[in-house]
Design goal:
Blueprint lengths: L47 E2 L3 E11 L2 E5 L7 E6 L3 E6 L11 E5 L16 E6 L3 H4 L1 E8 L24 E9 L1 E2 L5 E2 L9 E8 L9 E3 L5 E5 L37 E5 L29 E4 L4 E7 L2 E6 L5 E7 L10 E2 L2 E4 L5 E2 L2 E2 L2 E3 L12 E4 L6 E6 L11 E6 L10 E6 L12 E3 L8 E7 L5 E6 L6 E9 L2
Parallel strand pairs: 1-29, 3-30
Antiparallel strand pairs: 2-32, 3-4, 4-5, 5-6, 7-8, 8-9, 9-12, 10-11, 13-14, 14-15, 15-16, 17-18, 18-19, 19-25, 20-21, 21-24, 22-23, 26-27, 27-28, 28-29, 30-31, 31-32
Length: 487
């Protein structure tokens, strides 16, 4: 755990690869027997520029590592930005003539979070959502990585393989509830000295530091959706060589993505207004697909994910970008009770775990040609690592400033290459007439990569979009408004 007295500014150089599979070199471990599958060297066609381009306008540079931009009822001229280091910022967006603007701190949870403490650290303050009844109840929910204290609602899955090295959890993911008040100037603030602030709603342990998911979204049903990665490391398997060159634990059997007994590798759904859970802080909706299934975590809404880092609703449709392992990134339309394939599939391809070896920042796993499999949902779109390294989920565009993108899922990739931090902006048509198949064509929305890594998106109350960047040197970030431009 980092020293909580260390200032966030001293950690700015550590932000690098949020959502990326891995970033450090390791000594190779002995591999298992060779496989009969043939690796695919170039799984998907290259992404090309499409007919629509977007321009970026800097709204603020008063952030460090911005991962999400959210709105609150009654606050139409403000975007609230989640910063990985532990801050929720108020970003005034109403007067473009004043951009770039200064930011104001709404909430500081930097003393609670574990990470980010090194390059590529995916822990920290990862998500937030205002209650759908915010105008009445003033509630805010947050997702943070915190020190594991043995009290989590869900513990790390028990490893049974002899080669797994059992250790304490790296940290735990914590959903908290906060009461928000209005400032004299009309903004929002959280007074942490008030009784009842920061109540733990839902917690689950994480075996490794990465693949946390971390997004929070209220759906049109008024329920809270939580994205959760597979627990980290590589390949979602025990005994895999981890970043510290020790064998992984906490991924027994077929891996966490396929294990209905754990919240890891899932999209979860809870009712935070209820109080019927074992800890008395939330309720499990009776309509959740695995309620009553023996051995299943009833909070599960959908499963088979590796690291669904960002998610969003377009009406009743839930979308996410699921970060791949070594080869393929994917965009998913999330439906209740469905299996999205990890670790059986990576994108629209079969996934072969190979052995336990690591080759630099990758494992020795690979994808191979395999037709769609019964019971597994194909991605809406996917692309390979010729075009990026980690998909960053965005939004289906419904604003007025970019009419040519209406009905387009606007998303991005952290960086085309891990060593240069040049993010990319993409779009894929997801209108009802567009088939739900990985054959959907992704187009690039810029003539080239960005001067910074894409680590999140935001949507304001008018449905306009913002891309959230971390600087190439990792010393800060920015919030950039998207507008349509001429190719």
């Amino acid at each position: 755990m980092r020293n909580s007295s260390r200032s966030p500014s001293s950690r700015r150089g550590w932000f690098a690869a949020i959502g990326v599979s891995c970033v450090v070199a390791l000594a190779a471990a002995p591999a298992m027997a060779s496989t009969a599958h043939e690796p695919l060297g170039d799984p998907t066609p290259d992404i090309r520029p499409g007919p629509v381009r977007v321009a970026l306008t800097t709204v603020t540079t008063g952030v460090f590592a911005p991962v999400a931009g959210i709105t609150a009822a009654g606050q139409p001229t403000r975007l609230y930005v989640v910063d990985q280091v532990g801050f929720l910022w108020d970003v005034p967006i109403g007067d473009r003539s004043q951009w770039p603007v200064a930011t104001r701190k709404v909430l500081d949870v930097s003393d609670l979070v574990v990470g980010p403490s090194r390059k590529g650290d995916e822990r920290g303050f990862l998500g937030a959502a205002f209650s759908p009844g915010f105008a009445r109840d003033g509630l805010l929910y947050t997702y943070t990585s915190e020190a594991a204290d043995g009290t989590a609602d869900y513990k790390v899955p028990v490893s049974t393989e002899a080669c797994a090295e059992i250790r304490p959890p790296d940290h735990m993911s914590v959903i908290r509830r906060w009461h928000v008040t209005t400032t004299p100037s009309g903004g929002l603030t959280v007074d942490r000295t008030q009784a009842g602030q920061g109540t733990r709603v839902f917690t689950f342990d994480q075996p490794q530091f990465n693949h946390n998911g971390g997004d929070l979204d209220f759906g049109p049903d008024g329920l809270l959706y939580i994205t959760s990665g597979d627990g980290g490391g590589k390949d979602d398997q025990d005994c895999q060589t981890d970043f510290d060159a020790r064998p992984m634990f906490g991924h027994p059997g077929g891996g966490n993505g396929q294990n209905l007994g754990t919240p890891l590798g899932k999209i979860l759904r809870i009712d935070p207004a209820g109080r019927t859970s074992a800890n008395g802080q939330y309720a499990v909706p009776s309509t959740n697909p695995f309620v009553g299934t023996p051995g299943a975590a009833p909070e599960i809404y959908a499963y088979g994910f590796r690291n669904p880092f960002r998610a969003s609703f377009d009406g009743a449709d839930l979308w996410t970008g699921d970060v791949g392992q070594n080869d393929v990134e994917e965009v998913d339309h999330v439906l209740a009770g469905r299996n999205y394939g990890w670790r059986l599939r990576e994108g629209a391809f079969g996934f072969d775990r190979a052995g336990f070896a690591s080759k630099g920042f990758q494992s020795d796993a690979f994808v191979f040609a395999q037709p769609p499999q019964a019971g597994l949902v194909e991605p809406v779109a996917n692309y390979d690592h010729d075009d990026g390294t980690a998909v960053i989920g965005g939004f289906v565009y419904r604003g007025g400033a970019m009419p040519a993108l209406t009905g387009t899922y606007v998303f991005g990739d952290f960086t085309r290459r891990l060593d240069n931090r040049h993010g990319r902006l993409f779009g894929v048509d997801v209108t009802p007439a567009s088939p739900s198949t990985a054959d959907n064509v992704i187009t690039e929305l810029r003539d080239g990569p960005l001067d910074g890594g894409v680590i999140g998106f935001g949507e304001d109350s008018a449905k306009e979009l913002y891309v959230l960047l971390v600087n190439r040197d990792g010393t800060g970030g920015s919030v950039e408004r998207l507008d349509q431009s001429t190719p």
